[in-house]
Specification:
This is PepF/M3 family oligoendopeptidase. By secondary structure, the chain is mostly helical. The protein is about 65% helix and about 5% strand. The chain has a domain of about 150 residues: Up-down Bundle (Butyryl-CoA Dehydrogenase, subunit A, domain 3). It contains 25 helices and five strands. The chain starts with 19 loop residues before the first helix and ends with a helix.
Length: about 600
Amino acid sequence: MMTKPIWNLESLFAGGSSSPDFAAFVEEAEAGCAALLKELQTGGDSVPDERLLAGWTAKLQETLARLREADSFVACLTSQNLSDKRAVGWTEKIQTLAARYKQASDLFDAKLSLVPDSNWEAWMAQSELAAVLFPLSEKRDFAKEKLPPALEAVASELAVDGYHGWGEHYNTVVGRIAIAWEEDGNTVHLSAGQAANKLDDPSQAVRDAMAAKWEAAWAEQADLGADALNRIAGFRLKLYGLRGWSDPLKEPLAINRMSRQTLDAMWEAVEGSVEPLKRYLALKARMLGKDKLSWHDVDAPVASTQSKIPYNEAASLITDAFAQFSPRLAELARTAFADDWIEAEDRPGKRPGGFCTSFPIGRQSRIFMTYSGTPGNVSTLAHELGHAYHARLVQELPPLAQEYAMNVAETASTFAEAIVSDALLSRAESDAEKLALLDERLQRAVAFCMNIRARFLFETRFYDRRASGMLEAAELGELMTEAQREAFGDALGGWHPHFWASKLHFYLTDVPFYNFPYTFGYLFSTGLAAVAAKEGEAFAERYDALLRDTAVMTVEELAFRHLGVRLDEPEFWNDAVAKAVSDVDAFAALCKP
């Protein structure tokens, strides 16, 4: 498969951040949102009739689709070039539009809450509303737990330059990172994205050198990062307090449509992964000639040399692996590569990390990453294509029925990773190749059961402490190290105290606690993979049906309807964890004495 690692944004809005088409599109979205907001601000507390509610529902969904389209385009612009100041300006404009939409949405929700139960049931019985019955009912119920709409509107307005502004500050900070590095006798300055790829280099010397530079670079920016994190958390806690919410997990759990019982059952099961994964980390340390791995060794390849996988070869590998599970999934991948949906070029000036963002009106997606040819890059590419497939399956639904949460979004992506991993392992021809593939699978288990757990422990403790006042950068480093030690069972010989500063996820304001949904998605997809292995080709249809339902029911309902399992009880999660760590024995058997 021949494809180039540069995305095409021109087919969406020609002209990049100076696009007149995009400017016109945003202007129309702003006008539509303003008109809807004005309508919703009239009528006071009178109970709206069915005609008004139906009209507002249609307009709200149209505004939501336009907002998602615009937000995705700006995310692409700012990620591909951190120096694009015009794109940064668009970010503020889209955040303002998002605040206006939230005001309209809050008013709409309040109007819904005025409808008596008997009227509501009659209205919801109309067949044309069946596809959005769940999100509308969800909005109606949650409105009763928030501030009055006028106060929620003030909070949204102030959040643009406050709460969200502090979140965007991460892009300013990461744009300051330029790490001096010697290559072929010349000194180059690597962006954060390029430098991060060196942290899992096959060479121990390269990893050690970059880890020291990486930690030092983020230490220099630590005070700026600490300011941002403290302000973000402070805003949330004050707003939660005004709403009468005492638990900072109330909002992220509601966003992810899951119960505290399910979260607790999952983390309890994850603790059972620590000892098997410690065994894996000790075996890997021995293979690398160390007593204990350091933080930056966890994702290092076990082979002394590692051949690079060209981008075109990765595209073929992924598409072929997807085809073994579902022709529809393979077709999505072919479209993404052929139509230039993917920005993967290894060049300076890009944001670190990877993401997939969807365009609900254009019915396309775009994938962002920095591809340098490592097996981990191939996994990231498969992961993001899983997101794109999920987006495609729901793009035929009304906009409100497309708003699936992060935890189930991560299910589709990690399931796609597993498909690629299984296909590669099944055709591995040597013990060395099998060992390398098992290592990658266990790296993912470590990431989701140890690394993500460390992030969750850090963030919950940070919020506990933040309620009493701001924390200094040094205190955040201590909390981070403590959380890493606990989550990894003290299995490593070196830690990453400034991980809190370097990780974008801590600064995101759209979704608080951007951590536990990853573990949910990984373990839920592990359970799905077990079912797929038993059922074969027949499961692909059921998988698609499950993904289509991800925005119209709780995760507990989703799992019970499509898999017949209880997520708020430990059995499912214990089985998933056991499967996740089952590769440790196979890895140990292949390790050289």
